[in-house]
Amino acid sequence: MTKALEEAPARKRRERFRKGYIYMRRSCYLLFASALVFAGVAFSVFEIIKPEGLSPFVLFTALTMVSAGGAWLLDELVLPTRRG
Prior knowledge:
By secondary structure, this protein is mainly alpha-helical. The chain is built from 3 helices and no strands. It has helices at residues 2-6, 9-49, 56-83. Helix 2 runs antiparallel to helix 3. The longest helix has 41 residues, at 9-49. The model has no long low-confidence stretch (mean pLDDT 76).
C-alpha cells in the first residue's frame, strides 16, 4: 500500500510543484534583495552629490537599506548553498 502511494501521479506532481516553488521563491528573493541594495546605493549616491549638503539621517537610512539587502542576499542565497 505504501509503495502504491509513493508512486501515485498526484505525489509526483506535488514534488515537481515543490521544486518549481523553491526556484520561484529564490528568484523573488534575489530580485527583491537586489532591488533593495540598488535602491539604497542610489539613495546614498543622490544624497552625497546633492548641492545642499549632507543630511546624516537620509544617508543613514540609505546605508541601512544597503546592509539589510546585503544581509538578505547573504542569508537566502549564499549561506544555504554552503550548508547543503
